[in-house]
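Let's practice the habit of predicting before peeking. Look at the sequence and jot down your guess about where helices and strands might fall. Then scroll down.
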Amino acid sequence: MKVCVGTIVHHPEDARIMHRQIRALLDAGHEVTYVAPFTHCNVTPPQEIRAIDVPRAVGIRRGHALNAARGALRRGVKDADLLLVHDLELLFALPRRRPTTVWDVHEDIVGALDTKTYLPPSARRMLPGVLRRIESRAERRLHLILAESAYRDRFAGDHPVIPNTTYVPETPPQLPGANRVVYIGQLSEARGALEMIELARRLRPHGIRLDLIGAADPAIRPSLRDAQREGLLDWFGYVPNNHALRMAQGALAGLSLLHDVPNYRQSLPTKVIEYMARGLPVITTPLPLAASIVGRADCGVIVPYGDVDTVVQAVLRLRDDPERRAVMGARGYAEARGQYHWPDHAREFVARLEEWAATPAPARNLHHAALA
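Done guessing? Here is the structure:
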């Protein structure tokens, strides 16, 4: 099977796209063409794939990236058996002549509007209705896969859920350490970046450092740079997922201090599973799915939203109790290995695409101008 995978929004080394789905397709013997913003993100494509470079869609002005994507997808789907797109924007760049097409729904698009600080208030009021209509139209014309079971309520049909899990090592990782805490993922105000900067300030007198591994939204970058210059924390910027997870091993705990916004309320922060897979105690805010998993496995501490004092206390208690750290880390690892190991879900993902590619439906287009 020949598959064309496309994104203009996500980083080319996005863990779900590159390290899970594309890797699963390659391991199953399929050929992959990948349309992604390689140059923009300074990424060298792996030799195993056919790469087509496009600009990245950033901020409110996305027309240039979308226009480039139209031509790139036309080239990418030549001789392809299936097209897999990962962005809402690409629904408006689909070639008229195309193979079976699948949209991977990564997020609650309407719920995420609260985190899009570049959008004017008028757009945030108008867009929910528009986005719901786009989703409904796409559902009638494309196959869908969902990253969360909670997304099913947004659609009329019954679409398969391919959860955003991770690779869990076969053998238990090293024990948690005692002198650093870690965060992996995109950094923004809604993801708790300001709280983590203050946490680093309060932990420094105790000899505990904070490692932040991930790209940052423009609005938060000056604060992160200032904190790094002050010596409060180490901010490594974007690191490919597999390397970031190796960097996290041996930390005292993994942080997930996301705020209570709609886009996060329905989703499981993948970072929570990644920390568990690396044997780290988790410190998380009480988002429903994160709190449920951490509470059920008893593999971490649940803290109130925005409460840095409680996070400091949780870190210090873990620092002072190595046995508790080790037990929590072991419980988290066992839960992750048993329930959230990506290869256990990869087979279903590949089989579903193979089934759809073997029974193609007539291609139908979405007729609307690109979103600005």
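How did you do? The first strand starts at residue 2 and ends at 6.
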